């Protein structure tokens, strides 16, 4: 098969109708290449509910027959069951986010056996077969947070509230931050709070314990604002440590996601920055690549025509690494960010 030249398509927003998977296609759009199923990682994070809204209308806009999405709720067993159900309903394409990167092989093997194509969004599996991964560079997320914090904190303790380390996203963000601090900011003392399944409860409990032993904490890097923002701010407020930016005692906070709630927190001075994950583009290009893969097209490393690059991250695993800009008080009102368009 020959490689394809990529073409940008119009980003769109729609309404989410989440629930049990049915045979009904959403919106009545049809694709000659067959039905498509989408795994919804969770409905408790504003990032993922936004992504879910985008995926519905992108399927309509691109003429894809979309089975009603299913929510696996950070549960690998539910994810595997959901994919098996989708294949039984005739799905010829799957979009999923393997929150346990190593366990994704079960999903990929089941899809391959059924003759279905798979595109991974946001999280890369540890191995194939997968048509392509649509994802931003998560190591760069950690590096951007490190540089912002390092430029604003000269010495003292800084904390990572980490995503699940069973996910390559959690590992990449953690490694990017940790390695950058070690190399460039030796006066910063690194602390870490691990979480299981990106749990807000784990984040709050871990932060509380850290603050008891490090009341002079200087900065926090949250791996995911969608699940960690509220519990982090609530914990700081309860301890009397939620000081606005510019005030003595303010703890520098950098997040990941780019949700409206983070933008509001930046405007209020509660947090200082976030990395905007492109939820709209995840949906747009996830649908586009899957539709092309179902039509028999293949992809190759190199630049795309939508300001990104396809790279081979592991043997046989290609990844379109989309841009993910840093948002601060200086650009938080930029209308081009999807978090300002909802």
From TrEMBL:
Domain of life assignment: Bacteria
Protein localization: Cell envelope
InterPro entries in the cross-refs: Peripla_BP_I (IPR028082), SBP_2_dom (IPR025997)
GO molecular function: carbohydrate binding
Keyword Ligase found: no
Major location (coarse): other
Record bears the keyword Signal: yes
One GO cellular component term: cell envelope
Signal peptide: 1-31
Keywords: Signal
Domain Periplasmic binding protein stretches: 37-297
Pfam families listed in its UniProt record: Peripla_BP_4
Family: Belongs to the bacterial solute-binding protein 2 family.
Protein name in the entry: Ribose transport system substrate-binding protein
Organism of this sequence: Kaistia hirudinis
């Amino acid at each position: 098969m020959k490689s394809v030249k990529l073409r940008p398509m119009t980003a769109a927003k729609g309404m989410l109708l989440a629930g049990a998977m049915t045979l009904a296609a959403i919106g009545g759009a049809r694709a000659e290449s067959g039905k498509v199923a989408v795994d919804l990682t969770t409905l408790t994070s504003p990032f993922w509910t936004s992504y879910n809204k985008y995926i519905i209308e992108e399927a309509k806009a691109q003429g894809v027959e979309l089975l009603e999405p299913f929510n696996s709720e950070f549960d690998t067993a539910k994810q595997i069951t959901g994919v098996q159900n989708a294949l039984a309903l005739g799905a010829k394409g799957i979009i999923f986010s393997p929150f346990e990167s190593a366990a994704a092989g079960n999903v990929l093997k089941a899809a391959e056996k059924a003759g279905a194509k798979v595109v991974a969004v946001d999280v890369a599996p540890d191995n194939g077969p997968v048509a392509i991964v649509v994802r931003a560079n998560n190591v760069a997320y950690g590096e951007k947070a490190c540089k912002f914090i390092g430029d604003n904190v000269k010495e003292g303790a800084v904390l990572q509230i980490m995503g699940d380390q069973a996910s390559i996203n959690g590992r990449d963000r953690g490694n990017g931050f940790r390695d950058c601090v070690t190399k460039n900011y030796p006066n910063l003392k690194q602390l870490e709070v691990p979480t299981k399944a990106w749990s807000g409860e784990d984040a709050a409990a871990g932060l509380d314990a850290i603050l008891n032993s490090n009341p002079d904490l200087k900065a926090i890097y949250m791996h995911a604002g969608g699940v960690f923002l509220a519990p982090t701010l609530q914990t700081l407020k309860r301890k009397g440590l939620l000081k606005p930016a510019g005030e003595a005692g303010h703890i520098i906070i950098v997040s990941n996601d780019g949700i409206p709630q983070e933008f509001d927190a930046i405007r209020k001075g509660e947090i200082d920055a976030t990395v905007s994950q492109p939820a709209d583009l995840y949906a747009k290009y996830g649908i586009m690549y899957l539709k092309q893969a179902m039509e028999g097209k293949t992809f190759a490393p190199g630049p795309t025509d939508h300001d990104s690059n396809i790279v081979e991250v592991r043997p046989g695993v290609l990844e379109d690494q989309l841009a993910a800009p840093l948002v601060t008080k200086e650009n938080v009102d930029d209308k081009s960010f999807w978090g300002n368009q909802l």
